[in-house]
Amino acid sequence: MILAHLDVVPAPPEGWDVPPFSGEERDGYIYGRGTLDDKSCVIGVLQALELMLKRGYKPKRSFYIGLGHDEEVSGHNGAMKIVERLQSRGVKLLFVLDEGLAVLDGVIQGVKRPVALIGTTEKGSITLNLTVNQPPGHSSMPPEETSIGILSAAVSRLERNPLPNMFGVGPEASMFEQLAGEFAFPLNVMMANLWLFSPIISRVLERTPSSNAIVRTTTAITIFNAGVKSNVIPRMARATVNFRIHPGQTVTEVLDIVRNTISDERVEISVLNSFDPLPISPFDESNFGYQTLQRTIHSVFSAAPVAPGVCIGNTDSRHFVNLTDSIYRFSPFKMKSEDLSR
Ligand SMILES: CCCCCCCC/C=C\CCCCCCCC(=O)N[C@@H](Cc1c[nH]c2ccccc12)C(=O)O
């Protein structure tokens, strides 16, 4: 089964070089909200179907195409309904392919050639609301601590105390081992001997946001709200924090660490949504889905080396775990490091 999604995240008008829904082509790039995430996959799938129909191609086995319409808000009415329908028909899937990692060109430090990473797992996620309620007052006679001050201190503790570096505990180590030959000396020797060098490599990886994201559960403060008037001390301050959970940890473990780090009973912690990291899909030589994908990538991207990786974002495919044990996350395009912020 091949998945993609039609919806995009909002496109507020400010900050765009071209109108966000123009699809304007400039300097070899198509500009617009959702071009990478996930219109490129939708168009890729539909164009491939058209071509196959034109050529009178007869597939050896049946396959499904699933185009969700609410992936960016967790896929409850799109992907989940597709899963329900397939389950009610007793369908089992050989493998699922969804958006995810890509052909990375110059993104992994030390690797010169473009390499294709197939996401064989996906990080978990937990989103928390942190709320502080304190007596309100007038700014002319402030108390020693306010709701805003207490919440700011808690949020700052979370930022200053990241969750532990888990490199070597999770599947990201397999990625470096498989790509060892792509690094120049001495990195090739180090990657091939992670049992010895993982403490050094893990420190290097955590220095850059994109590789830090694969070695630990990340902490992102995404919403902060308090106060309405410059001379009123507000009763309530609230922050939203999103953690992306490393495959070596669980929701429960992360929650325990967060409680200990905040360590302030005045900060009320409530869970908005959470799920554990996804199971690791097989990527051995006998796995039909992984091998088919690897062969296809080799034929399209000039034999780029292929390795399994951890998808740091979440996808609709996570809803398909009861239909197959083989879920792969790969978007068929090249990404350079400057593209990561696009
Ligand atoms: C050694 C260096 C390795 C560096 C690897 C970095 C490569 C980055 C390449 C690609 C990025 C991966 C993006 C994957 C697709 C993500 C799709 C997406 O944006 N999802 C959203 C929305 C979302 C969907 N389900 C949930 C559930 C809970 C929260 C959010 C979402 C997202 O993940 O935020």
TrEMBL record:
One of its GO terms (biological process) is amide catabolic process. Pathway: Amino-acid metabolism; Lipid metabolism; fatty acid metabolism. Residues 121-265 form the Peptidase M20 dimerisation domain. Pfam families: M20_dimer, Peptidase_M20. Transmembrane segments: none annotated. InterPro entries: Bact_exopeptidase_dim_dom, Pept_M20A, Peptidase_M20, Peptidase_M20_dimer. It catalyses: an N-acyl-aromatic L-alpha-amino acid + H2O = an aromatic L-alpha-amino acid + a carboxylate; an N-acyl-L-amino acid + H2O = an L-alpha-amino acid + a carboxylate; N-hexadecanoyl-L-phenylalanine + H2O = hexadecanoate + L-phenylalanine; (9Z)-octadecenoate + glycine = N-(9Z-octadecenoyl)glycine + H2O. GO terms for molecular function: aminoacylase activity; metal ion binding; peptidase activity. It comes from Engystomops pustulosus. Secreted enzyme that regulates the endogenous N-fatty acyl amino acid (NAAs) tissue and circulating levels by functioning as a bidirectional NAA synthase/hydrolase. It condenses free fatty acids and free amino acids to generate NAAs and bidirectionally catalyzes the reverse hydrolysis reaction. Some of these NAAs stimulate oxidative metabolism via mitochondrial uncoupling, increasing energy expenditure in a UPC1-independent manner. Thereby, this secreted protein may indirectly regulate whole body energy expenditure. SUPFAM superfamilies: Bacterial exopeptidase dimerisation domain, Zn-dependent exopeptidases. This is Peptidase M20 dimerisation domain-containing protein. Belongs to the peptidase M20A family. Keywords: Hydrolase, Metal-binding, Protease, Zinc.
